[in-house]
Amino acid sequence: MSWKEENNTLKRSFKFKNFVEAWAFMTKVAMIAEKMDHHPDWSNVYNMVHITLTTHDKENTITEKDKALAKKIDELLG
């Protein structure tokens, strides 16, 4: 599954084998997001991680920052 544009956001869900793998993924994303100073809206339930990207200080639109973070998140999965 790839990123989906919806209501001026980029959205994607990720499924893992279990909660530990999902949490490990979120930890890696958190480190990347912090370095980029661009933080996702996200949620986690057991083995699922749901991520929404938008740039709040650009009137909640999709910007190059969102696209760059999405690309880096994808690279975590190989």
From TrEMBL:
Catalytic activity line of the entry: (4aS,6R)-4a-hydroxy-L-erythro-5,6,7,8-tetrahydrobiopterin = (6R)-L-erythro-6,7-dihydrobiopterin + H2O
The keyword Lyase is assigned to this record: yes
Keywords: Lyase
Residues in coiled coil: none
GO molecular function annotations of the record: 4-alpha-hydroxytetrahydrobiopterin dehydratase activity
A Pfam match: Pterin_4a
Enzyme Commission code(s) on record: 4.2.1.96
Domain of life: Bacteria
Family indicated by similarity: Belongs to the pterin-4-alpha-carbinolamine dehydratase family.
PANTHER family in the cross-refs: PTERIN-4-ALPHA-CARBINOLAMINE DEHYDRATASE (PTHR12599:SF0)
Name of the protein in its database record: 4a-hydroxytetrahydrobiopterin dehydratase
Organism: Pedobacter changchengzhani
Biological classification of the source: Bacteria, Pseudomonadati, Bacteroidota, Sphingobacteriia, Sphingobacteriales
